[in-house]
Amino acid sequence: MTDDGVSTAxxxxxxxRIVGSAAEIMHRKGVAxxxxxxxxxxxxxxxxxxxHYFTDKDALTRAVLDRWAEQIVASQVASLASVTDFAGLRGxxxxxxxxxxxxxxxxxxxxxxxxxxxxxxxxxxxxGFRRWQQAIGAALDRLVECGVLRDDVDVESWSVxxxxxxxxxxxxxxxxxxxxxxxTALDTTLDALARAGKVDR
Length: 201
Prior knowledge:
Blueprint: H1 9-29, H2 36-43, H3 47-53, H4 57-80, H5 86-99, H6 107-114, H7 119-145, H8 155-176, H9 180-197
Helix pairs in contact: 1-2, 1-4, 4-6, 4-7, 5-9, 6-7, 7-8, 8-9
């Protein structure tokens, strides 16, 4: 049975536990390195329970990618929602760097990269990144409205640049086990934004 068959609170909780366990393991070990028995043991369920909700590992992987996309976008929207000045942007930067302390990188980026050969994964990951970029762009639009950034600032280009700095920094941090690369990438990007577009007061 597919995950469409969830109809009770207990069933939803079981399915959610399975997806949560798979998400954490795939983040640490990748999709290829994640075995279904490991998910079963971590979630505390039987094989029949897993296959009641997911026809195979691919179906579970799709649910995991959807889970990470929703969680990350929601977290970023919340972190950026109150940004009205550069101090707020610096606070967002601090949140991103602190969140990378585990050293496993961005799960959305990690899984989408590993599954780049799958059209559905590129679409799902691309949609997640698009929404993340929109959240950054909305924060920059507010800075323009608040008179912090000049109204000729190219918000679209800067939101892409900032998201690229996040993803590139997270990749290097994953490889090195140190968040310094991420911190440097974001600091350099925000400093450049301030020089290029900040309103002189």
